[in-house]
Design a protein that fits this description.
heterodimer; A: about 180 residues; mainly alpha; Rna Polymerase Sigma Factor, Chain: A; Arc Repressor Mutant, subunit A; 2 domains; B: about 250 residues; alpha+beta; Phosphorylase Kinase, domain 1; seven-stranded antiparallel sheet; 10 helices
């Protein structure tokens, strides 16, 4: 969903921020795994964004700005701190993982078990889960994701490759169990 | 170039982030390599599933109301010296509203209609089976509607445009059957709704393009048919698909 330049110049906070409400809530639920926590997170995000709206640079990406506030708020919350305390191996972040030649996920998906796919996404560590959701669900460009997560585009690409690799691995394990 | 090199690019390609110079070479390779084609297909299936699983959480209406209240009516960032202009504008709007009550009622009915169409568009995309006839070929999609709706229409040739036809289904507006066509523009989807004008008696004040909640809706009438184009692409794209449809249906 894009917001036109004119609206950015003249729009009120409400005009800009309300259309993002459902997406932000969905993203918050994926981060927190809890309805009440997600609601608190979204509410705090809107409160912070409203206070900081004057400092928002007109003409820059508003959506990325909102997601960045939400994510930073989450990372400093209790759940966020606990979730990020799990160590993720970023060692080979600069070296994208080679893709698997076979595609067990398609065999798995034929059995079309959405619940298992959801739990496979849930099991991803936060840095992988967020980059995957921003790309595939929010359909953000690499540039937008880089702005949201405050990381370089090269890191977005390698992290996405790692996230997708982990998702496939999770799915493969689950498919083997059925 | 061997498959391994391309395999690393599959997801970048599907993300639409491959440089255009490599795009054509990639297309050619995948078209001629069954194993890469199967791999790409697997990834497309997984992405679709992730997208539909990923959009699973809906906020409650109560929570929406709470947020709306929290941020409602905050003024835009305006320079103080322009405030009196705003005051005058607000006064003008109030007067205009009082003077044109009827107009406002009609207008709000039109908004309700537009939001209904927007909801139909969004609900279609959220559905597991968005369309009942799946084809990029207009000569397959148009005949499919024969006997299903009480009118016929023409679909434009899309070669050399960035739009692709995804399919169609029968849809109902105020109890009247009509056609809903789904087009793709990049990763975006656009719905085209067509209904018989006379049976509908729609509360429309004017043809043209309208924007709300980042969706653009374009409407016009042609040969007793009422057309709506709804999508979250740019206004220009909605207009250009609209123009293609207008040209196709002008006899």
């Amino acid at each position: 969903m894009c917001v036109s330049a004119e609206r950015l110049q003249s729009g009120s906070f409400e005009d800009l921020a309300l259309p993002l409400f459902e997406q932000l809530y969905n993203f918050a639920r994926w981060l927190t795994h809890d309805q009440a926590e997600a609601e608190d997170l979204v509410q705090e995000t809107y409160a912070k964004a409203l206070r900081g709206f004057k400092s928002f640079q007109q003409g820059t990406n508003f959506r990325a700005w909102m997601y960045r506030i939400l994510r930073n708020t989450f990372l400093t919350s209790r759940t966020g701190l606990r979730a990020t305390a799990v160590t993720v191996d970023f060692e080979d972040e600069q070296a994208p993982e080679l893709a698997d030649p076979d595609t067990p996920e398609s065999i798995f998906l034929e059995r079309s078990n959405q619940n298992l796919l959801q739990s496979a996404i849930e099991e991803l560590p936060v840095p992988f889960r967020e980059v995957l959701l921003l790309c595939e669900v929010e359909e953000m460009s690499y540039q937008e994701i880089a702005e949201t997560l405050s990381i370089p585009i090269g890191t977005v690409m390698s992290r996405l490759a790692r996230a997708r690799g982990s998702l496939r691995k999770n799915l493969r394990t689950k498919a083997a169990r059925i | 170039m061997d498959c391994q090199v391309w395999t690393e690019q599959f997801d970048t390609y599907l993300d639409g982030e491959l440089p255009s110079s490599e795009m054509a070479a990639f297309d050619t390779h995948v078209r001629n390599c069954p194993s890469c084609a199967a791999n790409v297909l697997g990834r497309v299936q997984l992405r679709r599933a992730v997208r539909s699983s990923g959009m699973r959480f809906q906020p409650s209406p109560e929570f929406r109301a709470r947020i709306q209240k929290q941020i409602a009516g905050r003024p835009a960032t305006v320079l103080p010296r322009f405030r009196w202009v705003w005051a005058a504008t607000v006064a003008g709007i109030v007067m205009a509203a009082v003077l044109s009550g009827w107009f406002a009622v009609q207008h709000s009915r039109q908004q309700v209609l537009y939001s209904e169409l927007r909801d139909m568009h969004v609900a279609t995309l959220a559905s597991a089976n968005p369309v009942d006839v799946i084809s990029t070929d207009r000569h397959t999609v148009k005949p499919w509607f024969q006997g299903r709706i009480p009118f016929s229409f023409n679909l434009p040739e899309l070669a050399n445009t960035e739009f692709t036809l995804a399919g169609g289904k029968v849809s109902y507006l105020k109890g009247t059957p009509g056609a809903q066509l789904v087009y793709e523009y990049g990763k975006h989807h656009i719905s085209v709704f067509i209904y018989p004008e006379r049976t509908l008696q729609l509360p429309l004040q004017s043809d043209g393009l309208q924007t709300d909640m980042a969706f653009h809706t374009m409407t016009w009438t042609e040969g007793n048919l009422r057309f709506f184009v709804v999508g979250d692409v740019s206004a220009d794209q909605v207009r250009s698909l609209g123009t293609l449809l207008q040209a196709a249906n002008r006899s």
